[in-house]
Design goal:
126 residues, mainly alpha, 3 helices, 38% helix
Length: 126
């Protein structure tokens, strides 16, 4: 169960903005060190912590992770990003940053649209 007090819509929109601004590009100071999707952005509830202060189950992203993948070390890397079932884990392993970011952008846009549509429907029911 998530206990992240942030609005999931805000979290996803911030991640999309981060990607669109080149957030996962390699740092000029450490170009040999790749950044990890979700974990190396403000989306992660443990971002910039020296240790994991919160279990991943408390993060909004856990709701998008298949049940069988929730016990993995970085469960958000097992979110299925497209109809082919590709995950961050698979795409990072292929070392194709452009394809990974394109898949992340498409997934984020779809989830943002779903949430906005759902919320608009909820507002109309009141």
């Amino acid at each position: 169960m998530t206990s992240d007090e942030r609005d999931v819509l805000d979290v996803l929109q911030a991640e999309l903005d981060f990607i669109e601004k080149g957030g996962y590009g390699r740092s000029p100071r450490t170009p040999q060190q790749a950044k990890s999707s979700f974990a190396d952005s403000l989306t992660c509830i443990n971002y910039a912590s020296s240790k994991d202060l919160h279990p991943c189950e408390e993060c909004h992203l856990i709701d998008f992770v298949p049940r069988e993948a929730r016990r993995n070390e970085v469960p958000c890397h097992f979110i299925q990003l497209n109809e082919s079932g590709e995950t961050v884990e698979q795409l990072e392993g292929r070392d194709n940053q452009q394809r990974l970011e394109a898949a992340l952008r498409a997934w984020l846009k779809a989830k943002i649209k779903e949430i906005k549509t759902s919320r608009a429907g909820d507002d109309g029911a009141s």
